[in-house]
Write a structure and sequence with these properties.
Number of helices: 4
Strand content: 15-25%
Shape: globular
Distance between the termini: 6 Å
Strand order of the largest sheet: 3-2-1-4-5
Largest sheet: 5 strands, mixed
Structural class: alpha/beta
CATH class: Alpha Beta
CATH superfamily: YqgF/RNase H-like domain
Radius of gyration: 15 Å
Number of strands: 5
CATH topology: Nucleotidyltransferase, domain 5
Number of domains: 1
């Protein structure tokens, strides 16, 4: 096994309404919240939705070497309708940001964990809804980074 290559990674939590984005440090140790994007469901089928265009701009701005997208696997480990939608989103993102790779990773319970951590810090209600997607993206990316370090 090789050591995790240096470079910023972006973590993405794809929701029906919003897309949470986190970024790692160049050494792949720590994930931090970056931004929440509005999901664009109005783009024509042959056009790039604004959230994908914004993600592509973030990839370029942060010189990301990889994008890690949370795959909502159900508790039984199966891929339901949400996983199919996220896979299609990740495939479309990969087309937009090529040659930067897009990796899917199990995000089971990431939003629940993120909501719980925010509540423990006193962030509730509207304030929590505004940042829970970013916090879920942090959980997704941090779990992936930790797993990669354990492998090396």
């Amino acid at each position: 096994m090789t050591e995790l290559s240096r470079g910023v990674r972006l973590g993405v939590d794809v929701g029906q309404v919003r897309v949470g984005v986190a970024r790692s440090d160049p050494h792949g140790v720590l994930a931090t919240p970056l931004v929440t994007l509005a999901r664009d469901r109005t783009a024509a089928p042959d056009a790039v939705p604004s959230d994908l265009a914004e993600l592509a701009a973030l990839v370029a701005e942060h010189e990301a070497v990889e994008v890690v997208v949370g795959l909502p696997v159900n508790l039984a480990g199966r891929h339901g309708p949400a996983a199919v939608q996220v896979t299609a989103y990740a495939d479309r993102l990969a087309d937009v940001i090529a040659p930067v790779p897009v990796t899917l990773t199990d995000e089971r319970m990431s939003t629940v964990v993120a909501s719980r951590r925010l509540a423990e810090r006193g962030v509730r209600g509207k304030r929590q809804r505004a940042v829970v997607d970013q916090a879920a993206a942090v959980e997704i990316l941090q779990s992936w980074l930790d797993a990669q370090r354990r492998r090396t």
